[in-house]
Amino acid sequence: MKDRDSAVFNSIPQASSLRNGLAESLIAHIESGDLKPGQRLPTEQAIMEATGVSRTIVREALATLRAKGLITTRQGLGAFVSSNPTPRSFSIIPNDLESIDEVLRVLELRLGVEYEAAGLAARRRTSEDIVRMQDRLDALDRAVAEGGYGAEEDFAFHRSILVATQNSYYGRLFDTFGTAMVPRQWAHLDQMTATERQKHGERMRKEHYAIFVAIRDGNEAAARKALRNHLSKSTARFEELRDANLHR
Fold first, then answer.
1. Which partner from 88, 104, 151, 202 sits 20 to 30 angstroms from 177, CA to CA?
2. Are residues 111 and 76 in the same domain?
3. 205 and 149 part of one domain
4. Where are the annotated coiled coils located (predicted)?
5. Beta carbons within 8 Å of 11's beta carbon, 6+ residues apart
């Protein structure tokens, strides 16, 4: 291995979030040009020694970069920066959400996208869109009433709002994220008492219904406000969970 190949990796800090921390460090070096297209990455052993993480973490981080189209692997030669290292498409890989902080970043992104979408949906929705949104709400209610988390139904309701914008790019963007946009695995719903889950379900239903009514009635300002209120409260709940974990 050439010294210049390993020098960049000697500067990688300890990865506090394990795989994601290492993956983000590698991505930063690629995006900055420190690692150039076609350049060979150091061996797994060299990265382990430079960062102090395990071989499993190194392999998972490299797998993340391959999934994003940033590196390629050549049999017997190792990993290389792709000739066109810019990701071909943006995606949120479910395994990326390995901490509540990352869930909060997803919610922040959702707010930016869905806030505008709610206003457009209120302006452009059709009678078919209204029926679709009502159906999605009913399905979500049934899922929660039957004791489920309703993650897929929640995703479907939010996607129906994007469809109502009459701009297909919104729906396609949401499809890229998949159910990672509704990260119920971090909500700790299974740790709630029956009463707490009932209250949580009622609050979610009230928030969803406020969004639906505003869009149905063609009220752009109310639709944006209701959407912001819903995702802001979700953000606050995840922040509380994060802070509670920090103080354990």
1. 202
2. no
3. yes
4. none
5. none
Indicate the residue type of 44.
E
Q: Are residues 63 and 112 in the same domain?
A: no
One domain for residues 171 and 136: yes
Q: What is the CATH number of the domain that holds 62?
A: 1.10.10.10
Owner of token pair 């929660």: 144
pLDDT in tens, 127-160: 999 999 999 999 998 988 887 777 788 888 999 9
Phi, psi of 127 (to 5 degrees): -65, -35
pLDDT tier at 15, thresholds 50, 70, 90: very low
Q: How far apart, in whole angstroms, are the C-alpha atoms of residue 73 and residue 77?
A: 8
Q: Has residue 114 got a pLDDT over 90?
A: yes
As a whole number of angstroms, the distance between CA 83 and CA 72 comes to: 9
Q: pTM for the whole thing?
A: 0.62
Residue among 94, 204, 229 at smallest CA distance from 149 = 204
> For the ranges 140-149, 205-214, 218-227, which has the lowest average pLDDT?
140-149
Please tell me whether residues 61 and 111 are part of one structural domain.
no
Per-residue pLDDT for 125 more than 90? yes
